[in-house]
Amino acid sequence: MKNLNPALFSALALAFIAVLAIGVHVAVGGTAIALNDVFSTLFGFPPDGRTALMIYEFRLPRTLAAITAGVGFGVAGALTQNVARNPLASPDILGVTNGASAGAVAAMAAVAQLSWLPAGFGQWGMPVFAVAGGVLVTVIVFAVVWRSNLESNRLVLVGIGMSGLCAALTSWMLTLGEVVNAQQALTWMAGTVNGLSWQDLAIAPLVIAICAVIAVVLRPQREVLAMDADTARGLGSEVARDRLVLLGLATIMAVAATVVAGPLAFVALASGHAARILSRSIVPPVVHSALLGMIFVLAADLLAARTFSVALPAGVATAVIGAPYLMFLVVQQARTRNIR
Amino acid sequence: MNAQRIPRRVALLAIVLTAVLLSIAASLWIGSTTSTISELWHAVVTPNDQVSDIAIREIRWPRTVTALAAGAALGVAGTLIQGHTRNPIADPGLLGINQGAAVMIVAVTVFFGPQNPWSQALLALAGALLAALAVFGIARIDGRGASPTTLVLVGAAVTALCAAVVSAVVLLSEAALETLRFWQVGSVVQGYQSALMLWPLLALGLGLASINAGQLNVLTLGEDSAASLGVSAIKSRITGLAAMVVLSGFAVTLAGPIAFLGLVVPHLVRYFFGADYRWLIPAAALSGALFLCLSDILGRLLARPGELPVGVVVALIGAPFFIHVAHRRRAVSV
Fold it and tell me: Where is the secretion signal located (chain A) (predicted)?
């Protein structure tokens, strides 16, 4: 045991929990399915046609959406915290997810309001606008501190302001978009995986998987950026370029996750930070963050949607669990910065 | 110097008051259909049951009164909270105090049935007090008294937590989306009855704030100097907290948890009226009322023929302002 690498050990433990969480997430629902039936169906040997239909058509899209969102937010949080060297700097706190949400809803409002838009705008306009919203927020928030001190909490404050602004914009766009469907509105305000089907999962899982692999490959760059900027430059690193690449990856992942599940609060913040603690590494690790994000969203969705008589949006549960985590981080940071 | 500034401040107060009166007129005038001047005159002076009279007297007048009362309360609450914390980015909405009040009302309403305005207000006061104590308490753990950033970040966490609980409770009661949005962003369409019944609370809050104004002036010299001048820091902090909680609770009962108004108004009045809280408090009350009334009018124009909840409009204006203040390298000392 003494020689066991803590990062490897915790990754294996997390992977085990994640598989279990996936199984439970698929199993629990209107009719419960036995766990061994779930796993045999997932590996391609369904016990009967009814179970196969239930899992493949109804349960699996929802589970895959939760996994996609969890991995996307988790890794995006780790990358952003890595670049900013600040555990509070994650795409949800900085308003990137709310920006993507506002963009997506703006596209919906445009469809409802502007008759001259080309046909099919509703299909491709939504993700394009979501990316635009997320990228715009990232650029604004980081531009504020880019030339001075990236670690400064002014970044976080500006992000909180952007987050509030984007939430208000989303609210406005929802009235313009004639969104009468409460489910749709909730998706873009709180985040939920209720009522998703395979069609909603065409692109985002692929995008997130590719970005996650790139992030793993870029580990040397992430390790250098985890040091202070002068040291990183002294080691011959193109600091500005590496920061831009990693922030770009983080933004795309956060936006893709938002397009699937809406702006789930605190998943990125908590997963990125907890992953670093668990793996005892200097850089927030990608694999741990992905697994933790996945577990967080699956558990939150089980808690929100399956515990009460009404299926609550998963974003409610992530906020209730994540807000105390934010408090803990803030207090911890304030203490250490005082000692320094 | 000081003698010259008094007429200037009186003139400024008169200008703000005139603006408030004009905004009341505009608020009665503008709606999903804009009235003509003669219709407005008819409704105010010789009302009968014609449609425009009903629109003005039954719909626009109540929401105008609600906006004025809630705005005045939030403006003063924001000025007090910024003065006591000496934190230019503090606001009862951003620090979770308004959301705390909202959670209390929503939870009790869902589990024990509808409450009358006075019980709602008392619940709101309890919620606001709990949230305020929680935020100030947690933010103080860092040892040397809360830094502005720590306070706002803890407030953001409390706000998020309370907002999520509000969503959950409202959704579990299977209430309509409209109810949810009222308790998440705030609006002035349904608070008139509460305003008519609860005005003593507003008077109490403004009275406490006026008492607190002189103490705050002395406290800006530092707590030790204040003590040597006979002003007890603890007593005036408690008075300030009480005033802020009463005003926030009152505003939330009327109009839901509106954020950012209490942030913007103090900056505006400090810019025009200087640092003397005996002037800042009345100026903040008038400017807050003006701000919320104008935001409500804007909300009717931005989403015609529907309307935007006033909380959304205030956030659209206030959030960029917050970014501006937070972004400045050295925030002005309060």
Answer: none
Prediction ipTM score: 0.88
Is position A330 within any domain? Answer: no
> Mutate which of A147, A151, A171 to disrupt the B interface (most B C-beta within 10 Å)?
A171
Alpha-carbon span A8 to A6, nearest angstrom: 5
Angle, helices B310-327/B177-185, rounded to nearest 10 degrees: 30
pLDDT digits (tens, 9 = 90+) for B16-71: 999 999 999 999 888 777 777 777 777 777 777 777 777 788 888 999 999 999 99
**Inter-chain CB proximity A335 and B168 less than 8 Å:** no
Q: Tally Cβ neighbours within 10 Å of residue B33.
A: 11
Q: Is residue A303 assigned to a domain?
A: yes
Nearest by Cα to B256 from B15, B76, B74: B74
Nearest CA in chain B to A191: B164
CA distance B310 to chain A (A): 10
Question: What pLDDT score does A1 carry?
Answer: 47
Instruction: Kindly list the structural domains of chain B, giving each domain's residue range(s) and its CATH number in brackets, ordered by start.
Output: 64-327 (1.10.3470.10)
Q: Which domain holds residue A264?
A: 6-307
Q: What is the tens place of the pLDDT at every residue in B185-240?
A: 888 888 888 888 899 999 999 999 999 999 898 888 887 888 888 888 888 889 99
**Domain contains A26:** yes
Residue A95: inside a domain: yes
Q: What CATH number is attached to the domain comprising A50? A: 1.10.3470.10
CB contact under 8 A, B312 and A338: no
Contact: B172, A312; criterion CB under 8 Å = yes
